[in-house]
Amino acid sequence: MDANEVKEHARRLGADLVGIAPMIRFEGAPKQMDARYIFPGAKSMIVLGFRIARGTLRGIEEGTLFSNYPSMGYAALNQVYGPMVLWNLTRLLEDEGYETIPMLNANGGEAINPVTGNFRKGWSRPASDGKPYPDVLVHFRLAAYLAGLGEIGWSKVFLTPQFGPRQRFAILLTDAELEPDPIYEGKICDRCKQCVKHCHGNAISMHESVKVTVAGHELEWNKLDPLACEKGIQGGTNRELDPFEGDYPRLYGYGRAIEGACGCIRACMIHLEERRKIKNLFKNKFRSSPQWQIDRSKPYELTKEVVEYYADRGMIEDSEEYITYNKRDNYGTEGRKPEIVNPLVD
Ligand code: SF4
Ligand code: SF4
């Protein structure tokens, strides 16, 4: 199988983007982040990109549906859809006699903290002398860069000419020697800093930057505060983009990104669409009214519509007493008390 056939199969199986890097492009990477230690016989890294549908951001943009982006636009893309394509492409390569590691974008055992980038002392031991501490952390955005798919923007989010900031990645390491793609030499990020201005975690620096050299190219992005992002992504620094009174349930064991990447994806996407700097453009503008914010100085109260419809019919329940659908049949029959579960505290 040659590179073109691999790409055709990957697209047919569901990838939106495919790029190929020779493993030598990891030369100069820190040992803890060098994928060659994972598969010393690997010759190629295939990087697959999956678009984050613009529609998955719609519910958060309108302030009316918060589960769709954290699930369909985030965790499920990384943990369900991407792995399906990885498995099927791996089967094809293995049928041709090429060992292939399908790597989904999920963290767990890395010796480097994937959020802070710090080394985790006391976490693991090298399996033998000279090897890195397990697990090696593969930086998916740098992998996408090595495979020629685009560039890292000022926000530190990866930008492609097709979708701007709207994609997630999965990786295959294989001993198949495939024709590599050139490093992307275009410019998508124009340093407009809309990502900074609209980041509700105050995580993206306006002026301070980080520079790294990758495959002979100097890359620069903002000096991101990852812990500020961790907080901000869950509804903003002061929960101004979190309309919920309690914690929002995690979706697919992870997704809780209810701030909807207000700066680094939504504002960036709006900017790149307006400037027509990306290929996947839409018939209608994304934003039709300014970004809403919750005013938490006001007390919680029910709206008139809810009182008139639900309260007047005795249909109000305490949010702490969430009744599961499968127990609903028992509700009110034979005097049995329904089982109460609270999904907000597990
Ligand atoms: S919002 Fe502007 S500065 Fe920020 S990453 Fe996008 S294009 Fe670059
Ligand atoms: S996810 Fe939100 S908080 Fe984090 S950098 Fe992007 S805009 Fe800022």
Question: Would you kindly provide a written description of the structure presented here, covering whatever features stand out?
Answer:
- This protein is an alpha+beta fold.
- It has 2 domains: 272 residues, no CATH class; 38 residues, no CATH class.
- Strand 4 and strand 5 form a beta hairpin.
- One iron/sulfur cluster binds next to helix 6 and helix 7.
Task: Describe the structure in brief.
The chain is 24% helix and 13% strand. The protein has 346 residues and is an alpha+beta fold.
By DSSP (H or I, 4+ residues per run), the number of helices equals 8
- Summarize model confidence as the mean pLDDT: 92
Number of domains: 2
Rg, Cα atoms, Å: 23 Å
Lay out the secondary structure.
Layout: H1 3-13, E1 17-22, E2 44-51, H2 58-62, H3 68-95, E3 100-103, H4 140-146, E4 151-152, E5 158-159, E6 167-174, H5 194-198, E7 209-214, E8 217-222, H6 226-232, H7 262-274, H8 304-309, E9 322-323, E10 340-341
Antiparallel strand pairs: 1-2, 2-6, 3-6, 4-5, 7-8, 9-10
The protein binds iron/sulfur cluster (2 copies).
Which terms summarize this structure?
binds iron/sulfur cluster, 346 residues, disordered C terminus, 8 helices, 2 domains, two-stranded antiparallel sheet, alpha+beta, 10 strands, 4-stranded antiparallel beta sheet
